[in-house]
Amino acid sequence: MTFTTAIFAPMIAHVGLVYGLYFLLLRRRTALVKAGEVEVSAFRDIRDEPTESLRVRNNIANQFELPVLFHIGCLALFIAEADNEVALILAWLFVVSRYVHAYVHVTSNRLRWRMPAFLFGYAMLGLMWLWLLVWITFS
User: Fold this and answer.
1) Which of 18, 73, 118, 130 has the greatest CB tally within 10 Å of its CB?
2) Are 88 and 30 in contact (CB under 8 A)?
3) Which CATH number is 115's domain given?
4) How many domains does the chain divide into?
5) What are the counts of helices (DSSP H) followed by strands (DSSP E) for the chain?
């Protein structure tokens, strides 16, 4: 893989996380309905969703907040030809932080672990954008 295409790998890995979360949401909701704990209609308006599926649904929403800047940043790095080792390391660290954040969110949901994962990813994303700024300013 060349550096001109390598930036897409962490993007694809994040997309894989989102698809995995949707699959997990489907499994959890199906299990809740089969167990008789909730009616299918409860998911129509998404009111009173059980905690088991609510955490997953909330995490999916999280994947369309800060990660939007990640995908735009990766594309900007690619266009600016700034998708080198520094950019790749930062991108992968961001994606790893999203996986850790998602895992904690859909399991224990302990803020003690979730918040540091979020903040680490937040910092890595900020550094990605800073790297892009430095690259386009001094190249």
Assistant:
1) 73
2) no
3) 1.20.120.550
4) 1
5) 6, 0
